[in-house]
Amino acid sequence: MTRGRVTISIFALLLILTGLAGGLFYHQISRPGPLTAPQRILVERGKGLGAIAHMLEQRGLLRDRLSFRLTARLLKADRDVRAGEFEIKPYASVLEILDELRFGDAVLRRVTIPEGLSSAQIVALLSETEGLVGEIDRIPAEGTLLPETYYFSYGDERQTILKRMERAQLDLLALLWPDREPDLPFSTELEAITLASIIEKETANHAEKPLVASVFVNRLRRNMRLQSDPTVIYGVTGGEPLGRPILRSELDRETPFNTYRIKGLPPHPIANPGAASIAAALHPADSDYLYFVADGKGGHAFATRLFEHNANVARWRRLLKERATSSETVLK
C-alpha cells in the first residue's frame, strides 16, 4: 500500500471516529434527562456558566455538568443564559434545558393586594413577599395605591411594584373621573377617593357598594354628618385594625377623621379602595336612603327615616344577642 493510500485511510478513519464521537455526544445532550418531576430553578444575576452547570447537576437536572458546559460553548450560548426563575419540565434534555434558559419565559409570580388596606399595611405585605427585592423608601399617601393582583418575576424591586400600583390608580381615575355622575357633592379626585375609601371599609359586598355610596352622597347633600365607624377607627389607629368594639369615648373624641364629630369628608382617604368602590363613589345608586346597618346576612339594611333605621338597629342587636346566647349554649 502506498504512502498516499495509507494517509487517505487514516484520514477516513479519523472522520469516521469524529462522526461517531459527534453522534455519541449529540445522543448524550439530546436524550431525556434524569429529572422526573417539574422543577423551578433560579438563575441569579451574575452567576457564571460553571456555577449554573454545578447547580443544575446538584438539583438533579443533569447527569454531568461537562456536557452542559460544552454544549453551551459549542452553540456560543454561554453568554445568552438569562437570569430569572424558570420551570424545567420532566426528562428535559441538556439541549432543552439550555434552550429554556436562553429563550424560555421566566416564571411569573403574583401578589394580591386586598382592598381596603392602609398604605402602611400594603408596604408591610410587599416587604414580606418572597421573590421581591430591595427596600421601599417611603410609605405612599393613603388612597394612592390600587388594590389588585400584580405579576412579577423573581428579583423584581418592591419599589417598582409600588410604582405600578400608583400608576394603576392614576390610570383608573383618568378613565372613571370624566364620566362621573353630574352634581356630586364633591369636586376633586381626592374627595372621590376619600369617599370610596369609606365605602370600601363599610362593605365588602360589591353589589351594595352603590347603595352605601348613595347614603353618604345623600348625607353630604343635606349637610348631615356621615357617622361612619371606620372613620372613627382610622382616627384612633391610623389605619391599623382596632381589634375590638369602638368605645363611646372614641365616638366622642375629636379627630380630623371622626365623622360623628365633623361634617363633610375627612381630610384624606382612610384606606386604599378598590375599583368597585371608586366606581360606586362616582356613580352612586339613585336612592333616598340616609341610614344603613348590618343585616346579619353579609349585607346591610337600608332606611330613609330614622325610626326605620332604629328598628333595623334593634333587629341587628337582637340577632347579636341570640348568637351570643347560642354560642354560650354550645360552650356549655
Automatic annotation (TrEMBL):
Highest taxon listed in the record's lineage: Bacteria
Keyword Cytoplasm in annotation: no
Entries under CDD domains matching the protein: MltG_like
Residues annotated as site: Important for catalytic activity: 202
Sample GO molecular function, one term: lyase activity
UniProt xrefs under Pfam families: YceG
E.C. designation(s): 4.2.2.29
Record's catalysed reaction(s): a peptidoglycan chain = a peptidoglycan chain with N-acetyl-1,6-anhydromuramyl-[peptide] at the reducing end + a peptidoglycan chain with N-acetylglucosamine at the non-reducing end
UniProt KW keywords: Cell inner membrane, Cell membrane, Cell wall biogenesis/degradation, Lyase, Membrane, Transmembrane, Transmembrane helix
InterPro entries tied to this protein: MLTG-like (IPR003770)
Function, as annotated: Functions as a peptidoglycan terminase that cleaves nascent peptidoglycan strands endolytically to terminate their elongation.
Family stated for the protein in its record: Belongs to the transglycosylase MltG family.
The protein's name in its UniProt record: Endolytic murein transglycosylase
Organism encoding this protein: Iodidimonas muriae
